[in-house]
Design a protein that fits this description.
Exo/Archaeosortase_dom; eight-stranded mixed beta sheet; Exosortase A; 538 residues; alpha+beta; 4 domains; 18 helices
Length: 538
């Protein structure tokens, strides 16, 4: 007697046959799994019960070994990049939370164990293919010494390699923990100057609205009760990074809708910027009303962290009103990864992933000393004209040759320095002014910006800084030159350096620094402009 499609019929053996074009073997677990794949009718509990055979657990053991081995090899191959991350964790309180990121990510994966238990790892070609551009990104960043990009690429290699070994269906359930690993990379120092500017602007504006007279010049401002300065530690980047990390984690744990998660993450990113300006204002006003007896020194830092703690507690408290109710752990339907891999397949995928990750390292290891940098300055030449008598001169870390000269203008001397850098990784010519400026607690940096100047029949972009050191005001211009091309754009220099370092006989980079005494009227600009026209106009 024929069985109609969709009907259920009991056989004498006690086994049920479900006619959907699938005829399971009598009494077999394999047949039951076929039914589950075809229908998806079984409950979550039944699926977990009938789809976790010993073979699945056995496959997980091999997959875990393959992932662990891959991570160990990659971290060893890129140990200089990994050590660079850990060095920043160790020396900077701003990024010390990086030590906690990996344990937290591991715990987040452990929370998904119920879902992972019914999946079988199946290697993914997509993960392997994505490793190729990531490996090339690391190579490019290494060649031009963009450390933050090479560090992000290292984490991306770990993530995509894990994807390649475990497969898309497994990685889908641990996507957030893997993405959370990127927060271990020390990112955010480039935000310090704009955050300083916003904090200074907002603080001065709020002080003015409070009826207190205030005079601002750059990062410095004066009240009748004393002088204040917005230093890098006051920029709020430390609070911003901590807030965003906590906010992203809180959103993932307490919301199930991605819209809520994204909104809370954005709020946790913007709130500390506003809160830091308010913190700075309160500290300034506290110092003002107490004639400097409060909110100074250690008190300054303590009040700041206490204020930040209160802000975060308020953020979490407000966020709790929209918290999604706890739901049972979602279990994937059986069969989505039923085509699990053999141990040999998992290990082969791990080896392929290692080979892809190793390829850029192999390309540069023979040609460049990985992790190596120039050891000091090989030669210093100078100085044409009279000796110069002012306290500032630029840092020249990594330069192998320096040419210094002093030029007498109509009413002032100009100091000119050419720093030459070899076309090898480990030295960085294009830097922010804080890497060019020697450390000094007495030096005041008044202004940082880009300026367009005329160099013959073309326009040249230079980076400009105005500083006051030991009572003397100076204006500083610096820019870069590779071959016959000059620019003040650090990004463009990096692109040109990458091209030169890929060539067999690539050219090095020159950093040119011009310094002149200045005054409040900016009288040095015209003199420096004439020098640039003569120097670069040809």
């Amino acid at each position: 007697m024929a069985t109609a499609p969709g009907s259920v019929r009991r056989h004498g053996s006690g086994c049920w046959r479900i006619s959907l074009g699938v005829r399971p073997c009598r009494g077999s677990i394999a047949g039951l799994k076929q039914v589950v794949i075809a229908t998806g009718w079984l409950t979550v509990a039944d699926a977990a019960l009938h789809s976790t055979p010993v073979d699945g657990r056995h496959t997980w053991y091999w997959a875990g070994a393959a992932v662990a081995g891959y991570w160990a090899v990659v971290l060893w191959l890129f140990r200089d990049t990994a050590r660079g991350i850990e060095d920043i964790w160790a020396r900077s309180d701003t990024f010390a939370h990086g030590y906690l990121i990996l344990p937290i990510a591991a715990w987040l994966v452990y929370r998904q164990r119920a879902a992972l238990r019914v999946l079988v790892p199946a290697p993914s070609a997509v993960g392997l293919l994505l490793m190729v551009p990531v490996a090339l990104l690391w190579l490019a960043a290494f060649l031009v010494d963009v450390n933050v990009v090479s560090q992000l690429a290292l984490v991306a290699l770990l993530v995509t390699g894990t994807w390649a070994i475990l497969g898309t269906q497994v990685v889908r359930w641990i996507a957030f923990p893997l993405g959370f690993l990127f927060l271990a990379v020390p990112v955010g120092e480039g935000l310090i100057p704009p955050l300083q500017e916003f904090t200074a602007f907002a603080t001065v504006r709020m002080v003015e609205l409070s009826g207190v007279p205030v005079y601002r010049e750059g990062m410095f401002f004066s009240l009748p009760s004393g002088n204040w300065r917005v230093v890098e530690a006051c920029s709020g980047v430390r609070y911003l990074i901590a807030s965003f990390t906590l906010g992203v984690l809180y959103a993932y744990l307490n919301y199930t809708h991605w819209g809520k998660r994204a909104l809370f993450a954005v709020v946790s990113l913007l709130l500390p910027i506003v809160a830091n300006a308010l913190r700075a204002y309160l500290i300034v006003m506290l110092g003002h009303v107490s004639n400097g007896e409060l909110a100074a020194g250690v008190d300054h830092l303590i009040y700041g962290w206490v204020f930040f703690g209160v802000v975060m507690l308020l953020l979490f408290w407000v966020g709790s009103f929209w918290m999604d109710p706890p739901a049972p752990a979602p279990i994937p339907r059986v069969g989505v990864a039923s085509g699990g891999a053999t141990p040999a397949g998992l290990l082969l995928t791990g080896l392929l992933a290692v080979a892809i990750a190793w390829s850029p390292w192999w390309l540069v290891a023979g040609r460049f000393p990985v992790g190596g940098a120039a050891q000091g300055v090989a030669a210093v030449e100078g100085a044409a004209g009279a000796a110069i008598d002012w306290p500032w001169e630029p840092r020249s870390d990594g330069a192998d040759r320096i040419v210094r000269s002093v030029h007498a203008g109509a009413d002032r001397q100009l100091y000119f320095e050419i720093q030459q850098f070899p076309p090898v990784p480990g030295v960085e010519a294009a830097v922010h002014f804080r890497e060019l400026n020697p450390a000094s607690s007495q030096r005041e940096v008044r202004d940082l910006r880009s300026r367009q100047v005329q160099a013959g029949n073309r326009t040249l972009t230079v980076q400009e800084a105005q500083i006051t050191d030991q009572g003397q005001r100076m204006r500083i211009w610096y820019w870069y030159r590779i071959g016959d091309f000059s620019t003040g754009s650090a990004t463009l220099v990096k692109v040109l350096e990458l091209w030169q370092r890929l060539l067999p006989n690539g050219q090095g980079t020159e950093r040119l620094v011009l310094v002149a005494p200045d005054d409040e009227a900016g009288s040095a600009v015209a003199v420096m402009q004439r020098f640039i026209a003569a120097q670069e106009g040809g």
